[in-house]
Amino acid sequence: MPNPTPSELKKRLASDGFEIYRTTADAVQLADRVRDNLIMDSGVSAVVGGALSVRFITKAQASEFPGESGEQLFERARQLGAGAVSAGYGEVRTSVVPVHDPGDRARVLDTWYEVVFEKAVNDADLLDQLRYALSLPKSATR
Fold it and tell me: How far apart are CA 29 and CA 94, in angstroms?
C-alpha cells in the first residue's frame, strides 16, 4: 500500500487527536499546546517522503551551557535521544541553528545544537511511535 500524501496524513492525525503545527511537502509536523491560545512546534514529525517514518529533534541551547564546545552541546542533545536509539531510532543528521533577534536579524540571541533522530515505521505503528516521540524530552537542561 502506498504512503499517504501529507494532506491525507494530516487529516488522519487530526482525527486521531494530534494537533498539527505545519504540513510540508514530505512531512506533517506535530504541535505542542503550551497554553489554550498557543501552540508550538513539538519537534516531532510524521514523514512520508520515501518510507513512512517518525522523526524528532533534540537540542541543546548554547546559552544554557556557557563555555561548552559545539561537540559537547551536540552530545547533550544526543543523550536526550539515547533511549530512542535502543527503540530503533537512528541519528540522521545534526545542525547548528542560530536564533536571530526578530527585531534585528543581524543579532544572534542564541544558538541551538540539534540532533535529528528517525525511525521507519509501518502504518500500524505510526500513531504509537508518534506518541512515544512526543513523550521524550527535546531540550537539554542543567
Answer: 18
**How many angstroms separate the Cα of 14 from the Cα of each of 57, 90, 107, 117?**
21, 26, 37, 23
**Are the beta carbons of 85 and 77 closer than 8 angstroms?**
no
SS3 string of 49-100?
CCCCEEEEEEEEEHHHCCCCCHHHHHHHHHHHCHHHHHCCCEEEEEEEEEEE
Q: Of the candidates 16, 15, 19, which has an alpha carbon nearest to the alpha carbon of residue 30? A: 19
Domains in the chain, please, with CATH?
6-135 (3.30.1460)
What residues are paired with 114 via a beta bridge?
59, 95
Q: By the 8 A CB rule, do 5 and 48 touch?
A: yes
**pLDDT (tens digit per residue) in 17-48:** 999 999 999 999 999 888 888 889 999 999 99
Q: How far is CA 47 from the centre of its chain?
A: 11
